[in-house]
Known about the structure:
It is a single chain. The protein is mainly alpha-helical. 43% of the residues lie in helices and 5% in strands. A two-stranded antiparallel ribbon has the order 1-2. A hairpin with a 2-residue loop joins β1 and β2 (64-67). α2 runs antiparallel to α3 (100-110). The longest helix is centred in the first third of the chain and has 45 residues, at 7-51.
Amino acid sequence: MAEMSNPGELAGFVRNWLHYDSLASSLYKQATRARQVRDNFEVKVLDELRNQRMENAIIQINNGTLHVVEERSPRSLSLIRIEELLHKYFHKKGHGHDETKELMNYIRGNRGYDVSKKLKKSGGPNLPPLPQPPQHGGALPPVHGGPMGPMGPMGSMGPMGPMGHN
């Protein structure tokens, strides 16, 4: 096994990864919940507009308008859906021989996959401690891109301050 040149640096990377993994997970859950609440209100607004026979109404809001639109979204093409469509295709063609099974076996056998390496956390939901500045009195190294970094001044993310500290 190779010897680590700076185990403290690796520990810092791991702490930062754990911190931002927890932050990303928390933000994802908040965004999911916000979309669910928004969607519930959308149903209520649409129901009320339908009940009042006002589906063509244009509602004035702070920075524009709100109106009902019809949105068409294509169905996803899962392997099951592709198989169903192929059966319909061969039935409609009327040639007598349905090659769906052979085609699906070919597709599944030649689909392929991508392999990549990722960090995977296991265990409890314990939150890691926030990364601390080095003890030698120096400042944290700048986030990639200099003092502004990719997320604003000193790597901050809005009101939370640098790296989640207040």
